[in-house]
Amino acid sequence: MWLMSLGDSTDAIAVRVPGKINLELVVGPVREDGFHEVSTILQAVSVYDRVTVSTADRWSVHVTGPYADRVPADDSNIALVAAKTLARRRPRRGKLEPVRIDIDKNIPVAGGMAGGSANAAATLLACRELWQLDHVDNDLLEQVAAGIGSDVPFLLHGGTAIASGRGEQVTPVLGRGELHWVLWVGEGLGLSTPDVYAECDRLRDEAGLEPPAPQPSEELMTALRRMDADEVAAALRNDLQEAAVSLEPRLREVLEAGVELGARAALVSGSGPTVAFLTGSQAEAIDLSVGLAANGPTGDIVRAIGPVPGAQVVQHTRTPPRPPVPTRPSPLGPVTD
Ligand SMILES: C[C@@](CO)(OP(=O)(O)O)[C@H](O)COP(=O)(O)OP(=O)(O)OC[C@H]1O[C@@H](n2ccc(N)nc2=O)[C@H](O)[C@@H]1O
Ligand SMILES: Nc1ncnc2c1ncn2[C@@H]1O[C@H](COP(=O)(O)OP(=O)(O)O)[C@@H](O)[C@H]1O
To answer: What is the pLDDT of residues 262-289, one digit of tens each?
Structure first.
């Protein structure tokens, strides 16, 4: 008799997701839950990870790309955490299907560009589609996202947005036009977000300063309506910058080098250590990136525009079941243990 072995079909959903920079980050008081009350204006910029989620026999995560060696490929990967968290929201009768997650990592790691949060947002979107979770609408997806990390809901939206609370309550900012950024990514540098918030508190205590009321500035909101580079440059603010420079003093030299080479403004991105330089046009951005590569501090130089959309499904692949493989019985008879 001929025996047949049948394979299952495989589905894969690929999502493209950008990193972010904070155009404004006002850090208010510490709340009872240990998080700081913030008001931040975030912009998604054109540096992308690609996250592919496919049906599999067991949960796993695999990372490739220039920053892959700095990303954990185990249960601590925030993309895997996101997939398992969403799995718990499935209807009881739904089949439990583990996934394999492939991350092509181009967003600098631990750089203040929310690359991990971006991967989590992308995974939520991909898993919702893969598992066909029709009952999970955008509001519920955002709720799940907020439980995973403060920046995850924003990466579902992208664009430019105000975020409040601990950063998870997102309101879009409408504006026209685009901004041209040059990013400096320090080799071997990496600042931990909790450490930078703690250093911000320490520096304020030392100086006897009270935390400010977390509110977005009118000046920046007006500048963003037109995306006017000079107006935006004048209004950029990051309350974590001094703390990031205190923990990583080499950043001061980087900030100064960019301005000397023609940037309209220089700003540490979020908790750093990536530095964002604002320029007035694509031509200026090219000039600055050439100047920084030739004469600036050692690091990767990346040009990016913003705003860009958040996580988006870009590919759905269905691999049909493998054809039946005919196998002949052994001429030696059945094999037993
Ligand atoms: C600083 C910012 C600016 O957008 O991002 P990064 O620059 O790290 O990307 C965010 O506030 C980071 O957001 P995210 O990276 O999602 O942080 P979470 O995982 O929620 O929190 C990590 C840790 O940061 C500190 N934290 C975070 C957010 C907040 N409003 N107050 C805090 O004190 C807490 O110590 C918390 O345990
Ligand atoms: N998918 C992921 N991508 C990047 N970092 C991850 C991921 N999962 C877990 N991490 C861990 O989260 C830390 C913060 O990463 P990331 O989100 O890139 O930085 P930031 O919080 O500065 O924006 C990393 O040092 C890494 O150990």
So the answer is: 999 999 999 999 999 999 999 999 999 9
Which CATH number does the domain housing residue 196 bear? 3.30.70.890
251 alpha carbon to ligand 1 midpoint, in Å? Answer: 20
CA distance 84 to 93: 17
ipTM: 0.96
Q: What is the pLDDT of residues 33-64, one digit of tens each?
A: 999 999 999 999 999 999 999 999 999 999 99
Per 3-state DSSP, the chain is made up of helix, strand and coil in percentages (nearest 5) of 30, 30, 35
Would you say how long the chain is, in residues?
337
Q: How many domains does the chain have?
A: 2
Asked if residue 263 belongs to a domain, the reply is yes
Pocket of ligand 1 (CB under 6 A): 22, 25, 35-36, 38, 40, 112, 114, 117, 149-151, 166-167, 193-194, 197, 270-271
**125, 311 Cβ separation under 8 angstroms:** yes
Binding site membership for ATP: which residues?
Answer: 108-118
- The tokens describing 123, both together, are 């995974």
And the tokens for 265? 């403004």
Residues 164 and 227 grouped into a single domain: no
Confidence of residue 326 (pLDDT cuts 50, 70, 90): low
The two tokens of residue 335 are: 């094999």
Query: Which CATH number do you get for residue 93?
Result: 3.30.230.10
Domain that holds residue 15: 10-174+309-314
Burial category of 298 from C-beta neighbours within 10 Å (exposed 0-12, middle 13-18, buried 19 and up): exposed
Assess if residue 159 is contained within a domain. Answer: yes
Q: Which of 38, 67, 109 to mutate for ligand 2's pocket (most ligand atoms within 8 Å of CB)?
A: 109
What are 303's strand-pairing partners?
A: 182
Predicted TM-score (pTM) above 0.80: yes
CB atoms within 10 A of CB 218: 9
Q: Which candidate, 201, 22, 18, 171, places its Cα nearest to that of 106?
A: 18
Same domain, 17 and 128: yes
One domain for residues 71 and 194? no
Across the strands, what pairs with 181? 278, 304
